């Protein structure tokens, strides 16, 4: 076996440099064909399933090179293989002359019967944070789950990379006095002894990097304070993504959308001083068939005070993240353009603030949407659906064949499903099932809720075609019914991420703060539809 210095090495660099929103973290991810005992790194990461008493594969090779140390620790009960158990073993060259890594980290994977790509992401996130806390600069890891776990190599490699990149994420732009902060890991080498698997691992790294960078961009945008991210700033980020990835890009100003008749959108924006920005980005992956398209529409409220129907003060600061849907679709098209599915993808974000200024719309007002429907404003805090109504009208006027909208829309979503699952609604079973399947693949849980005829009646208005709220009961469903009236017969899915877009504490590869959900689901959907 060649040493890693002379081995054939495939390299994919993971550079978190697509967003200038915060100071950049650079992580280089490479794959190297080598014996694990010969990789010269600060820490080598291997793994163990629960219940294994005699390790084999790469872990077994390490155990043999260390004279059975791992087996002894298993026998003593110090290593059990339980999920996310991390055991660091120091392996100085003076003690193990033929073993290059300075330390070994044994990561527990839990039960092999239930292990999946979500398990890979969780353990990889735990590992990268452990490595950072230990001051590691260069680590190597085997692909979790691709051996005894029985998972396909490319998917396992992708999940390993996603767990590392997303698990390492920190938003530190405004933390200026933390002198004891540990530096991030600089390089991660995925080591594989079998040369026939290197190409598959490289492919997994490429996808994992693209998916992760996109979700990191979405996180950065959502984490930005509202005074630092106006509609114009969101539009500037979209323009930067478009220029770097050769995308078509257009921003409509208020006069432009007024000519198009977007009264619902303009009504939301009129209470604040910062001008609206209607963002449209497009990727042409199937120029010969314009109808082969997917429109991703994201709610882009850069701050939501509730308008005249003002929100309670407690927790209002989180309303800086009310553009999470817009962030996710802008980020998703970045990766889509890099991975190049055979599909035409359009992104729309009707960005604005919702403020209670003297010119703000009032409860009881009536506005007219782009499609001509009139809307009674029952509550100015039900503003996101108004912007989505005109965004969908715009998409339909330009030949949208499939629409997926993403919005931090209703507090009722948290009441219904908690903060671990996003409710999904839709008018087309095939498209809904495609979204649900992709969410399962990438580990962004979703659950379909019904669009029933009873809750639909709650949106009825006595003076207009409909009103913008249906009351407290079934709030997520009545909001979806409202949007469905504008989608009409066009296949459409609505994802409500109000509860899942931000978390109060770290959960696996999802950090406290912005999660970036459902960016990777949208990328996966485009890849599947354009496969």
From TrEMBL:
Coiled coil segments of this chain: none
Listed EC numbers: 3.4.11.1, 3.4.11.10
Organism name: Candidatus Lucifugimonas marina
Catalytic reaction list: Release of an N-terminal amino acid, Xaa-|-Yaa-, in which Xaa is preferably Leu, but may be other amino acids including Pro although not Arg or Lys, and Yaa may be Pro. Amino acid amides and methyl esters are also readily hydrolyzed, but rates on arylamides are exceedingly low; Release of an N-terminal amino acid, preferentially leucine, but not glutamic or aspartic acids
Keywords assigned: Aminopeptidase, Cytoplasm, Hydrolase, Manganese, Metal-binding, Protease
Cited PANTHER family: CYTOSOL AMINOPEPTIDASE, LEUCINE AMINOPEPTIDASE-RELATED
Organism taxonomic ancestry: Bacteria, Bacillati, Chloroflexota, Dehalococcoidia, SAR202 cluster
Domain Cytosol aminopeptidase positions: 379-386
Domain of life according to the entry: Bacteria
Protein name according to UniProt: Probable cytosol aminopeptidase
Main location: cytoplasm
Pfam families tied to this protein: Peptidase_M17, Peptidase_M17_N
Role noted for this protein: Presumably involved in the processing and regular turnover of intracellular proteins. Catalyzes the removal of unsubstituted N-terminal amino acids from various peptides.
GO biological-process terms attached to the record: proteolysis
Subcellular location: Cytoplasm
Plastid in keyword set: no
PROSITE patterns given in the database record: CYTOSOL_AP
């Amino acid at each position: 076996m060649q040493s890693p210095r002379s081995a054939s090495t495939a390299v994919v660099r993971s550079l978190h440099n697509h967003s200038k929103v915060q100071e950049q973290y650079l992580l280089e991810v490479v794959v190297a064909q080598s014996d694990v005992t010969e990789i010269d790194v600060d820490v080598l990461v291997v793994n163990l399933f629960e219940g294994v008493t005699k390790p084999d594969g790469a872990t077994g090779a390490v155990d043999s090179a260390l004279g059975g140390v791992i087996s002894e620790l298993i026998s003593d009960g110090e290593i059990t293989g339980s999920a996310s158990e991390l055991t660091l073993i120091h392996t100085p060259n003076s003690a193990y002359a033929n073993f290059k890594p300075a330390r070994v980290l044994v990561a527990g994977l839990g039960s092999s019967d239930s292990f999946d790509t979500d398990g890979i992401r969780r353990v990889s996130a735990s590992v990268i944070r452990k490595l950072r806390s230990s001051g590691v600069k260069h680590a190597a890891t085997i692909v979790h789950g691709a051996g005894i776990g029985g998972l396909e190599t490319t998917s396992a490699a992708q999940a390993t990379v996603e767990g590392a990149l997303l698990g390492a994420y920190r938003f530190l732009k405004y933390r200026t006095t933390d002198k004891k902060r540990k530096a991030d890991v600089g390089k991660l080498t995925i080591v594989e002894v079998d040369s026939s698997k290197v190409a598959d691992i490289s492919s997994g790294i490429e996808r994992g990097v693209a998916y992760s960078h996109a979700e990191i961009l979405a996180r950065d945008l959502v984490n930005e304070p509202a005074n630092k991210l106006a509609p114009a700033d969101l539009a500037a980020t979209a323009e930067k993504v478009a220029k770097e990835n050769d995308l078509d890009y257009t921003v409509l100003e208020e006069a432009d959308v007024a000519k198009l008749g977007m009264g619902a959108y303009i009504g939301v924006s009129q209470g604040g001083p910062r001008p609206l920005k209607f963002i449209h980005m497009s990727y042409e992956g199937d120029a010969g068939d314009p109808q082969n398209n997917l429109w991703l529409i994201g709610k882009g409220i850069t701050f939501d005070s509730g308008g005249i129907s003002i929100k309670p003060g407690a927790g209002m600061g989180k309303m800086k993240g009310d553009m999470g849907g817009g962030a996710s679709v802008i980020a998703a098209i970045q990766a889509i353009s890099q991975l190049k599915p055979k599909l035409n993808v359009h992104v729309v974000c009707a960005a604005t603030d919702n403020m209670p200024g003297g010119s703000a719309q009032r409860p009881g007002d009536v506005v007219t949407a782009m499609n001509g429907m009139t809307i009674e404003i029952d509550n100015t805090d039900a503003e996101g659906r108004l912007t989505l109504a005109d965004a969908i009208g715009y998409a339909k006027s330009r030949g949208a064949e499939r629409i997926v909208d993403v919005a931090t829309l209703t507090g009722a979503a948290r009441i219904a499903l908690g903060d671990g699952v996003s409710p999904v609604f839709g008018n087309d079973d095939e498209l809904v099932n495609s979204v649900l399947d992709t969410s399962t693949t990438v580990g962004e849980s979703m659950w379909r809720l019904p669009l029933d005829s009873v809750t639909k009646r709650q949106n009825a208005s006595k003076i207009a075609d409909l009103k913008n709220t249906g009351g407290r009961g079934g709030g997520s469903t009545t909001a979806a019914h409202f949007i469905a009236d504008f989608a009409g017969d066009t296949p459409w899915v609505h994802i409500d991420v109000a509860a899942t877009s931000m978390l109060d504490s770290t959960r696996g590869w999802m950090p406290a703060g912005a999660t970036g959900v459902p960016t990777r689901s949208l990328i996966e959907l485009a890849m599947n539809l354009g496969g």
